[in-house]
Amino acid sequence: MDVHDPTGLQLGSYRSPIVLEEIAQQDPQMVRPWQALGAAVLIPCLARDQHAGILALGEKRSGRLYTTEDLEIFFVLAAQLGLALENLAYLEAIKAAQEQLRQSDRLATAGRFAAAIAHEVKQPLTAITTFVETLPIRGDDAEFRAHFQAVVGGELQRMETTVRQLTDFARPQPPQRQRVDLRDIIRDAAALIQPECAKRGAELACQVPGPIEFDTDPHQIKQVLLNLALNGLDAMEATSWVRDRPRRLTISATADPQNVELSVTDSGCGLRPEEIPQIFEPFHTTKAEGTGLGLVVVKQIVEAHHGTIHVRSTYGQGTTFTVRLPRSGHEDSR
Q: 73-112 in b/e burial notation, b at 16+ Cβ within 10 A?
């Protein structure tokens, strides 16, 4: 019976085994519920001299009375049960505290999520609204119409990117693995990155020694490359104040029998040592624009593939992200 049951509370002063027949005459009301359960002897389960529970012993099958030696053995057992019950109570308290922390984290994340949506969608909408309001006045101006089309198209693309990143972060999808050649993934990613590199005056180089076949989700790994590459292009954009500084983005790959390694290196502004531990935190960004989710999504995808991601950066010189993935689709073999 639970020690917090009203009947159990009447036993709180006992610190030794209680033979019910011996106290039946003194307090029959207290004894009656226990006898109804078939109990003959009650032994308090103590933890740090506090009642944690009660061990109830029924009559012996032989009909004999419990000896002093019997009760000593059960008293030791009850002491162990008392400690176990105390530990269980502590565990439940820890679980409750952890759940409160998780709930607080969820609320905090939801708040940052909402703020990110408001911030990243508001700016493009402001630009689009400004052009729409000006269109009736300058609609006949061909140069304005061309500029309007370019700006609105760019802002809509920016909003689409924001929504995609937020969706990828909030609802990550499990990898759909298939046997692929890594060269094909890099080629497809490079084809998408090249126009942006040309637009920003950056050179793109791909270095893959030969065929590298492994089990992976090609679409997700391509997204990893795209996110890392765009992150590198942004970093190089931040070094535009450095004259004659070459902008070079390099995607390379190597493999051994167990693992595949992908690296994306930029010649951008690099990271300060104190910034590195924070780069995979949701909504953390050093950019004037952006959700701070690009690298978070990358980490989610890599870990879903049982892989790892590491960053090596020198402030003022550049950064390299290295992704290590198991070729079999199972845990990374190191």
A: ebbeebbebbeebbeeeeeeeeeeeeeeeeeeeeeeeeee
